[in-house]
Amino acid sequence: ETGVTQTPRHLVMGMTNKKSLKCEQHLGHNAMYWYKQSAKKPLELMFVYNFKEQTENNSVPSRFSPECPNSSHLFLHLHTLQPEDSALYLCASSQEGTASYEQYFGPGTRLTVT
Amino acid sequence: KNEVEQSPQNLTAQEGEFITINCSYSVGISALHWLQQHPGGGIVSLFMLSSGKKKHGRLIATINIQEKHSSLHITASHPRDSAVYICAVGVDSNYQLIWGAGTKLIIKP
Q: Which of A54, A71, B26, B85 is the most buried (most CB within 10 A)?
Protein backbone atom coordinates (compact mmCIF):
# COMPACT_ATOMS: atom_id res chain seq x y z
CA GLU A 1 0.00 0.00 0.00
CA THR A 2 1.28 3.46 -0.80
CA GLY A 3 0.11 6.91 0.17
CA VAL A 4 1.58 8.29 -3.04
CA THR A 5 -0.23 7.71 -6.32
CA GLN A 6 0.94 8.43 -9.84
CA THR A 7 -0.91 8.56 -13.14
CA PRO A 8 -0.58 7.35 -15.76
CA ARG A 9 1.40 4.22 -14.98
CA HIS A 10 2.54 3.87 -18.59
CA LEU A 11 2.87 6.52 -21.29
CA VAL A 12 4.02 6.34 -24.87
CA MET A 13 4.45 9.67 -26.61
CA GLY A 14 5.95 11.06 -29.75
CA MET A 15 8.60 13.73 -29.70
CA THR A 16 6.12 16.44 -30.70
CA ASN A 17 3.47 15.56 -28.10
CA LYS A 18 2.65 17.37 -24.89
CA LYS A 19 1.65 15.30 -21.90
CA SER A 20 1.57 15.62 -18.11
CA LEU A 21 2.41 13.25 -15.30
CA LYS A 22 0.42 13.57 -12.08
CA CYS A 23 1.38 12.73 -8.53
CA GLU A 24 -0.77 12.93 -5.42
CA GLN A 25 0.19 12.21 -1.83
CA HIS A 26 -2.25 11.48 0.98
CA LEU A 27 0.29 11.56 3.81
CA GLY A 28 0.12 15.19 4.86
CA HIS A 29 3.72 15.74 3.81
CA ASN A 30 5.20 19.11 2.96
CA ALA A 31 7.81 18.10 0.40
CA MET A 32 7.45 16.40 -2.96
CA TYR A 33 10.05 15.18 -5.43
CA TRP A 34 10.41 14.11 -9.04
CA TYR A 35 13.06 11.51 -9.86
CA LYS A 36 14.18 9.96 -13.12
CA GLN A 37 15.38 6.36 -13.19
CA SER A 38 17.10 5.17 -16.34
CA ALA A 39 18.17 1.58 -16.86
CA LYS A 40 21.18 0.56 -14.78
CA LYS A 41 21.67 4.07 -13.34
CA PRO A 42 21.11 5.44 -9.84
CA LEU A 43 18.06 7.58 -9.27
CA GLU A 44 18.46 11.14 -10.50
CA LEU A 45 16.72 13.88 -8.59
CA MET A 46 14.97 16.31 -10.92
CA PHE A 47 12.95 18.69 -8.76
CA VAL A 48 12.10 19.28 -5.11
CA TYR A 49 9.17 21.27 -3.79
CA ASN A 50 9.08 22.20 -0.13
CA PHE A 51 5.90 23.85 1.13
CA LYS A 52 4.89 24.37 -2.54
CA GLU A 53 8.09 26.28 -3.32
CA GLN A 54 10.62 24.83 -5.72
CA THR A 55 13.85 24.41 -3.78
CA GLU A 56 15.84 22.29 -6.19
CA ASN A 57 16.14 22.12 -9.94
CA ASN A 58 18.88 19.73 -10.81
CA SER A 59 19.86 21.22 -14.18
CA VAL A 60 16.85 19.63 -15.80
CA PRO A 61 16.16 20.57 -19.44
CA SER A 62 13.31 23.01 -19.96
CA ARG A 63 11.29 20.41 -21.85
CA PHE A 64 10.42 19.16 -18.35
CA SER A 65 8.26 21.66 -16.47
CA PRO A 66 7.09 20.96 -12.90
CA GLU A 67 4.03 22.40 -11.23
CA CYS A 68 3.04 22.16 -7.57
CA PRO A 69 -0.35 23.79 -6.97
CA ASN A 70 -0.52 22.62 -3.35
CA SER A 71 1.39 20.37 -0.95
CA SER A 72 -0.58 17.29 -2.04
CA HIS A 73 -0.25 17.51 -5.80
CA LEU A 74 2.70 17.58 -8.15
CA PHE A 75 2.73 17.60 -11.93
CA LEU A 76 5.45 17.13 -14.50
CA HIS A 77 4.59 18.69 -17.85
CA LEU A 78 6.39 17.17 -20.81
CA HIS A 79 6.89 18.65 -24.27
CA THR A 80 9.16 17.98 -27.25
CA LEU A 81 10.88 15.14 -25.46
CA GLN A 82 13.77 13.12 -26.86
CA PRO A 83 14.09 9.33 -27.02
CA GLU A 84 16.76 9.46 -24.30
CA ASP A 85 14.08 10.81 -21.95
CA SER A 86 12.50 7.35 -21.94
CA ALA A 87 12.72 6.20 -18.32
CA LEU A 88 10.78 5.48 -15.16
CA TYR A 89 9.64 8.73 -13.53
CA LEU A 90 9.10 8.45 -9.81
CA CYS A 91 7.36 10.84 -7.49
CA ALA A 92 8.08 10.87 -3.77
CA SER A 93 7.07 12.83 -0.70
CA SER A 94 8.50 13.40 2.76
CA GLN A 95 7.49 15.22 5.90
CA GLU A 96 9.93 18.01 5.10
CA GLY A 97 12.31 18.62 2.25
CA THR A 98 15.61 17.59 3.75
CA ALA A 99 17.47 14.35 3.35
CA SER A 100 16.93 13.50 7.00
CA TYR A 101 13.33 12.42 6.43
CA GLU A 102 12.11 9.16 4.92
CA GLN A 103 10.80 9.48 1.42
CA TYR A 104 7.67 7.68 0.31
CA PHE A 105 7.54 6.76 -3.35
CA GLY A 106 4.76 6.35 -5.86
CA PRO A 107 4.69 3.38 -8.26
CA GLY A 108 6.19 5.41 -11.09
CA THR A 109 5.26 6.25 -14.66
CA ARG A 110 7.05 4.25 -17.35
CA LEU A 111 7.60 6.73 -20.16
CA THR A 112 8.57 5.75 -23.69
CA VAL A 113 9.37 8.47 -26.20
CA THR A 114 9.15 7.36 -29.82
CA LYS B 1 34.89 7.25 -7.28
CA ASN B 2 31.20 7.45 -6.41
CA GLU B 3 30.31 8.95 -3.05
CA VAL B 4 28.09 5.93 -2.27
CA GLU B 5 29.31 2.48 -3.20
CA GLN B 6 27.29 -0.70 -2.81
CA SER B 7 28.50 -4.27 -2.93
CA PRO B 8 27.88 -6.67 -4.36
CA GLN B 9 26.17 -5.38 -7.50
CA ASN B 10 24.39 -8.70 -7.97
CA LEU B 11 23.73 -11.48 -5.51
CA THR B 12 22.03 -14.82 -6.06
CA ALA B 13 21.36 -17.08 -3.08
CA GLN B 14 19.26 -20.03 -2.05
CA GLU B 15 16.16 -19.70 0.05
CA GLY B 16 17.00 -19.66 3.73
CA GLU B 17 20.47 -18.18 3.38
CA PHE B 18 21.68 -15.21 5.44
CA ILE B 19 22.18 -12.21 3.16
CA THR B 20 24.47 -9.23 3.63
CA ILE B 21 24.53 -6.16 1.39
CA ASN B 22 27.12 -3.47 2.02
CA CYS B 23 27.17 0.29 1.56
CA SER B 24 30.20 2.53 1.93
CA TYR B 25 30.18 6.27 1.63
CA SER B 26 32.78 9.01 1.57
CA VAL B 27 30.89 12.07 2.82
CA GLY B 28 29.71 13.20 6.23
CA ILE B 29 26.08 12.25 6.59
CA SER B 30 23.04 13.11 8.64
CA ALA B 31 21.25 9.86 7.85
CA LEU B 32 21.53 6.73 5.76
CA HIS B 33 18.55 5.16 4.03
CA TRP B 34 17.96 1.62 2.84
CA LEU B 35 15.22 1.14 0.26
CA GLN B 36 13.80 -1.77 -1.70
CA GLN B 37 12.67 -1.70 -5.31
CA HIS B 38 10.64 -4.57 -6.70
CA PRO B 39 10.56 -5.43 -10.42
CA GLY B 40 7.35 -3.44 -10.90
CA GLY B 41 9.28 -0.28 -10.10
CA GLY B 42 7.83 0.84 -6.77
CA ILE B 43 10.35 1.85 -4.10
CA VAL B 44 9.76 1.26 -0.41
CA SER B 45 11.77 2.78 2.41
CA LEU B 46 13.09 0.04 4.71
CA PHE B 47 15.21 1.92 7.22
CA MET B 48 16.57 5.32 8.00
CA LEU B 49 19.38 5.34 10.52
CA SER B 50 22.12 7.59 11.77
CA SER B 51 23.73 5.31 14.34
CA GLY B 52 23.68 1.78 15.70
CA LYS B 53 21.28 -0.82 14.50
CA LYS B 54 17.63 -1.20 13.52
CA LYS B 55 15.58 -4.36 13.08
CA HIS B 56 12.28 -4.94 11.34
CA GLY B 57 11.13 -8.52 10.97
CA ARG B 58 13.85 -10.45 9.15
CA LEU B 59 15.69 -7.29 8.12
CA ILE B 60 18.51 -5.75 10.13
CA ALA B 61 20.41 -2.58 9.25
CA THR B 62 23.61 -1.47 10.93
CA ILE B 63 25.78 1.58 10.53
CA ASN B 64 29.32 2.40 11.63
CA ILE B 65 29.75 6.16 11.43
CA GLN B 66 33.51 6.09 12.05
CA GLU B 67 34.10 3.60 9.25
CA LYS B 68 31.45 5.20 6.99
CA HIS B 69 29.87 1.86 6.34
CA SER B 70 26.44 0.30 6.61
CA SER B 71 25.14 -3.21 6.11
CA LEU B 72 21.71 -4.59 5.39
CA HIS B 73 21.12 -8.17 6.53
CA ILE B 74 18.27 -10.49 5.64
CA THR B 75 17.80 -13.57 7.79
CA ALA B 76 16.03 -16.71 6.52
CA SER B 77 15.82 -15.27 3.00
CA HIS B 78 12.78 -16.01 0.87
CA PRO B 79 12.10 -15.67 -2.88
CA ARG B 80 9.82 -12.71 -2.15
CA ASP B 81 12.92 -10.86 -0.90
CA SER B 82 14.12 -10.77 -4.52
CA ALA B 83 14.45 -7.10 -5.38
CA VAL B 84 16.95 -4.31 -5.83
CA TYR B 85 18.20 -2.91 -2.53
CA ILE B 86 19.34 0.69 -2.62
CA CYS B 87 21.46 2.64 -0.18
CA ALA B 88 21.18 6.43 -0.09
CA VAL B 89 22.80 8.98 2.21
CA GLY B 90 21.57 12.36 3.32
CA VAL B 91 23.95 15.22 3.95
CA ASP B 92 23.13 17.95 6.44
CA SER B 93 21.48 21.07 5.02
CA ASN B 94 20.98 19.42 1.66
CA TYR B 95 17.74 18.41 0.03
CA GLN B 96 19.30 15.71 -2.02
CA LEU B 97 19.96 12.11 -1.18
CA ILE B 98 23.10 10.68 -2.74
CA TRP B 99 22.08 7.36 -4.23
CA GLY B 100 23.95 4.11 -4.59
CA ALA B 101 23.58 2.08 -7.76
CA GLY B 102 21.70 -0.70 -6.01
CA THR B 103 22.24 -4.39 -5.34
CA LYS B 104 20.11 -6.82 -7.30
CA LEU B 105 19.20 -9.76 -5.09
CA ILE B 106 17.71 -13.00 -6.38
CA ILE B 107 16.63 -15.67 -3.92
CA LYS B 108 16.06 -19.06 -5.52
CA PRO B 109 13.56 -21.52 -4.00
A: B85
